[in-house]
Fold these 4 entries.
Entry 1:
Amino acid sequence: MLLNSMCTLEPACCSPRTTALEAAQLMRKRHTGDLVVVDDGDDKAAPVGIITDRDIVLEVLGKGLDPAVTLVSTLIRSPVVIANDRDDTSHALELMRVHGVRRLPVVNHEGTLVGIITADDLLRNLANDAGALVDIAAREQSREQRTRR
């Protein structure tokens, strides 16, 4: 399955100049545990990183830093691992495995952010596929019982 058919469109975003406090407030407002950090120098948003609620807890609060002045740019890891909207889910899974990340910004052919795909999204898709396989087996047994009486 292609990422453009299953990624979360219009992910919550912030700029590198956003403070950790503002990022946390935005996460709360958008009901998400992560923000895609986008380069704000141009009208085409290009992802430069991801910040998570865990980053804020461990790197800001855990180190006693002031979230009102700590910038997101100091918390993100570079380079950001991204996926293309035309990539297959198996490629996204491999990127996550190789790089040890659970979230991938998804960009189009111009490098513009179009969405985000997470390990949870891929797991949900796998669970749905597994459920469909179980349903196929049950329906086959039922059909066979009806036709072979």
Entry 2:
Amino acid sequence: MTKRHLVLFTAEFPYGKSETFLENEIIFLCDAFSTVTIVPKMITDKEIRPLPANCIIEPFHFRTSILAKLKRLSYFFKKSVIQEFKIVRKEYRKTINIPILRTILSSYFEAEQYLRYISAKSQKNSNTLFYSYWCDSAAIGIALAKQQGTIQKGISRCHGWDVYFNVHEINYLPFRKLIAQQIQLFPISRKGYDTIRDTWCANVDSAYISRLGTISTQRINNQKPASFKLVSCSNIISIKRINLIISTLHQFSGIQLEWHHFGDGILMEEIKQLSKELPESIKAFFYGRIPNKEIYQQYQKIKPTVFINVSSSEGIPVSIMEAMSMGIPVIATNGGGNSEIVNNENGILLSANHSFQEIATALTRFY
């Protein structure tokens, strides 16, 4: 039987605690392939999560010398870069300003390094599938390899930030059409699929909706609790709008309420400080980033009344799937693919540009 090999490009998995959704997927990937080589882009935490025996880890090493960076100036003459300039101007109808130019050149710089890695890997074993977990510079590198005939097939998942132009300050993502033309795309939501078709101006014949998921867990036996318990799980960054939860909770002064948040991020300390100003009847608990199994265990202990996600944009969050698999209803923003999982039967869907008053109304209904 022919051995099949997979090269999986990640942000940092299996290092650290991020990309938790891959902890489930890697089991299925390792069942389907003889070997799975995981290539993380960065290592911020040397802790390695448990992996199946047929996994190999090969951290990616970018060239960062001044000479390597100066090479970006030569990219103005690259066919793919010239074509991207035309797409930005004529199809996206955007002016190529400094931020967009910098994005094009820096992403191509990274993609070219991935291309070299892919070329070397494919020569060693032609029966290898290259898979970028994010539609980022690794996906561009795979697309370039396919365009040059170095590989026969490549694939990429498409989530949220790597799909939607409007969540970025420059309202743009680089080389989307090149990626769509060359490799198979697996958006995790119908919203993502529609965006690839409409915003990327790309043919979606090779795009297939492939939602993420979670392994079913024990449902919570939730009797009416002594206090109202709210739980959230996300990075603490601006797009997640955790500050809106705090603004909302100020409306519940005098009500015994607990808010439990799982996850961390650059705004962690700021959010912790804001939470100290909450009324005395409201208790806030921050757990940081912990392994998925521990989150399930904590949910069993806490027995949440409701899960909340007020992010301005999402794919379809696995955190929502995990909560629902345990029987926890959900309040979520109608952004990204959230409407594909949250509805009036299993929770409350907030308007895309909701205020904290709208969140308060939803919480009051549960209370």
Entry 3:
Amino acid sequence: MSSSPQPTIKQQEKFWDWHWQHWQERRTVNQWKQTRHEKVLEFVKSVAVTHPRILDLGCGPGWYTDQLAQFGDVTGIDLSESAINMARQRFPNINFIAANLYEYSLGRQEFDIVVCQEVIDHVENTAALVQRVAEILKPNGYFVLSCTNKFVVDRLDERQFPSQPAHHIGRYLNIKGIKAHLSPQFFVSKLETIIPMGNKGILRIVNSTKLNALLGVITPTTVAERLKERLGFGYQIVILAQKKR
């Protein structure tokens, strides 16, 4: 069976314009994403760089770019012009760029930190994205990224992870896979999974109502959830990586 043709950049741009124009129907703002963003902020805060230059790669309408501005001088870039127009209206004090990251002239070794939330699994070439990030980061610069955990996605049903429209790229990675893509250019300093979920295979047992009720008698729910995250059963992978010299 032949695979679907790769959507062009123009088709991807059109999809993301549509996505952000319909962000409310698509439930783009939700508690899962807020939990992820709080972990990303935690990782950024842990970096020992005074007033860093930060790039928010795949910034969308800038909701999280604005919060990154507390740490330093932040720039947001996104393929979707619709998203960037929204961002500029909401946060006129921040520099936002509507452009293709691979073609736009960002300076080499220009940024101290690149933040990339839910982008790396929605591009046509993961290695090319990692290479581009390495180019624009200063020596020993930091890459803070999040992505969907393939181990969990493969164990969700249709209600939890519905099918996506045409021209949506979803190339999900497990922990081993994302580490392999990062290792030529980066050292992984921190890696956590968050938001345990899933109801197939081993996750059917791990997340069963009966088991969790029993665990709740023995230990606080937060402790059990943290253990699942440590075991790699979280829906999201969040990483702090440092560029190699």
Entry 4:
Amino acid sequence: MMKKYYIRDIAKNLNCLNSEIIIYGWIQQLREFKTIYFGILEDSTDCIRIAISKELVSFSLKNEQSIKIEGVVTFDKRNNLQIEARRIELIGDISVNYSPRPRSMKSIFEYTKSNQIEYNKHIYIRNNIIRQMLIARAHVMDSIREWFKTEGYIEVTAPILTPILLYDDSTGIDVHIKEQDLFLTQCVGFYLESAVHSLERVYNIGPSFRKNESVSRRHLMEYWHVKSEVAFCNLSEMCSIVENMISYIVGSLDNDIGYKLANDIGTDLNLDGINIPFIKVEYRDALKILEINGIHIDFGKNINEKGLTILSQYYNGPFWLMHKPKTIEGFPYKISKEDNRLTQTADLIASNGKGEILGVAEKITDTNELINRIYEKNKNPEDYKWFIELRQYGSVPHCGMGMGVERLIRWIFSMPHVKDVIPFPRRINKRIYP
């Protein structure tokens, strides 16, 4: 039964014109006339018109069924490619009903249909817009790996189960296994910091889990995380490295494939990330800008989504928010020498109000400084014993980067919500199904 032809192959290879082929797919549309069915057959690559004489059909022909057609490739009266069926076989029938039908939907982002699609994603994943979004996601993931490989990074797999968290325990998803309290990883950075002292340039792409209460368009409870660590590196150098990576990824879509995907999804392709370097804005200066715009944020507090949207209107493209306060940053991050209230960190804020997509940080290498920061975050240094030992055994200056895959894709393809760019979204305060 293995497919020899995919629908896209027919358009690419017109040598099959007027010859008989076997094609498998799903019925996207069907119109019934007195003696014939006209319809559209769809597979993972494309769609094609079909003409089926009723004499050939021994079953009830319906939309969304999977079928096998043996037929001849011709042109119809309007010069569109078409398969005139000679034989037809039912592969999979329809015994449950979904309205609207997945393959009939031309818009999937309407608020009224959002929950229906999310809770029935196992069926609605067949929708062409969702399919094109998943293809776009695959292209972005390929580009990320291509960049790391080209630059000489080594991919390091890291555990999902971990005894320690980067952020507050209340944001962790806990797991109890054989009398040990564990968590699903929030960030594999701990393990990459170990590997960077062996391989110097490392990365990981995998899921992260965070039980945040935020219900913004940028947050998921389970998301895909791109993490990297670089040895003998400072904050400024890490910002430059990330700029080159973003420019490469976005640039890889500045072609026919990228524009076609955006067109098929029904959005605009955002290429703002190509032009580097990005502007750097100090945290203090950002607070002043927001104050002028009627938004007061106390020093040491996070800038909310509304504030980031206002800031993005001031700059032509993405920008760095530099030196965030230690009160809101993780304990492994180095304190600024110029102001001990700030850290050697930076967040990359996307254009068009899409908010933060990644963060970079220079890591603490001094044992005592790290232990003090652990205490400041109300954590127990004993729980982080092995992580502290990394500073006691030939440590070197190093920096890390963490990027949300869904945030990046949402920005590039101008999508309304991160849930729309992941196959099966997991969101806080939402029932998990399927």
